[in-house]
Amino acid sequence: MGQRKAPKDGDRKVGRRALLIGGTAAAVGSAVLARDELARLWWRVPGVEKPRKEGEVDFAGARWVAASDANWRRADRPDDYGIDMVVIHVTQGSFDSAVKVFQDPEHGAAAHYIVRKDGRITQMIRELDVAYHAGNRDYNERSVGIEHEGFVERPQDLRDEMYEASARLTARICARYDIPVDREHIIGHVEVPGTDHTDPGKHWDWDRYMKLVRAAHTAPA
User: Fold this and answer.
1) What counts of helices (H) and strands (E) characterise the chain?
2) Burial letters 128-160, b for 16+ CB under 10 A, else e
3) What is the pLDDT of residue 11?
4) Distance between CA 6 and CA 70 in Å, rounded?
5) pLDDT band at 50, cuts 50/70/90?
6) Which residues in 101-215 belong to E strands, given as ranges?
7) Could you give phi then psi for residue 101, rounded to 5 degrees?
8) Residue 196, Cβ neighbours under 10 Å: how many?
9) What is the C-alpha separation between 218 and 34, in angstroms, rounded?
10) SS3 state of residue 40
11) Which DSSP string corresponds to 72-119?
12) Residue 97: CB atoms within 10 Å
C-alpha cells in the first residue's frame, strides 16, 4: 500500500466513456475502442466466463478471505486482459489492518494477496479479476498485486519466511501466465507510472528476492 491510500481504479461503464471528438481519426479511434471493449465484455456473458467456486484460491496453501467487491472489478483474465506483471507492495501496517481496509468498501483499493511476516499467504481477490492496487488502470488490468506485512522503514519486518513464501507465489504466477522472471515484469509499487507510493522501499532486497523467485521458478512443481 505504501505511504497513503491508493486511489480508486477509475473504471467507468462503457456507456460513460468520454466521446472522442474530431474527423476520421476520431471515428477510427472510437471503433477500435468499441471493438476492444466488446471483446472484453464477451467474457462476462453468463455461460462464457470461467467457472468460479466460492472460496477457491489460485495458489495452493493460500487462505481465502474476500475483499470488498468495491475494491476490485470482475474480469476473466487473461482472456480479456493479458497478465504480464507482478507488483510488489508493503502494507505500511499489520496484516490484520491490511485485511480490514481491503474489506472496507470505502477504501477503494485492495491487492490479490497479502503475505504475512511468518510467510502465511492470504488471497483476497481472484487472479481472474482486476484488483485496484497499483493506482494506474493499465497496470491494474495487466498485473497481480502482492502485499507484504510491515513498514518500508523497518527492515526487520522483511523476514526470511516472508521473502521465501512470496518468491514461491510470484514464481507460480509467472509460470501460470508465462511472465518473464525479470525486473521489467516484477516491479515495486514505486515503479508504477503516476504513483505517489514508495513501497516496497529501500530495504526491500531485490537481488535476494529475484534469486529466490528464479530458484522457485525452475524447481519441480
Assistant:
1) 5, 8
2) bbbbbbbbbbebbbbbbbbbbbbbbeeeebbbe
3) 43
4) 13
5) confident
6) 113-115, 121-123, 130-131, 143-148, 186-188
7) -70, -30
8) 12
9) 41
10) helix
11) EE---TTTSS---EEEE---SB-HHHHHHHHT-TTT----SEEE-TTS
12) 13
CB 72 within 8 A of CB 110: yes
**pLDDT tens digits, residue range 153-211?**
999 999 999 999 999 999 999 999 999 999 999 999 999 999 889 999 999 999 999 99
Strand partners, 114: 122, 147
Kindly calculate the radius of gyration of the chain based on its CA atoms and give it in whole angstroms: 18
Amino acid of residue 95: F
Q: What type of residue sits at position 36?
A: D
39: pLDDT confidence band, cut at 50, 70 and 90? low
Asked whether the beta carbons of 115 and 149 are under 8 A apart, the reply is: yes
**Residue of 122, 118, 120 lying closest to 100 (CA atoms):** 122
What is the mean pLDDT of the segment spanning 44-56? Answer: 74
Above pLDDT 90, what percent of the chain?
73
Determine contact, residues 131/111, Cβ cutoff 8 Å: yes
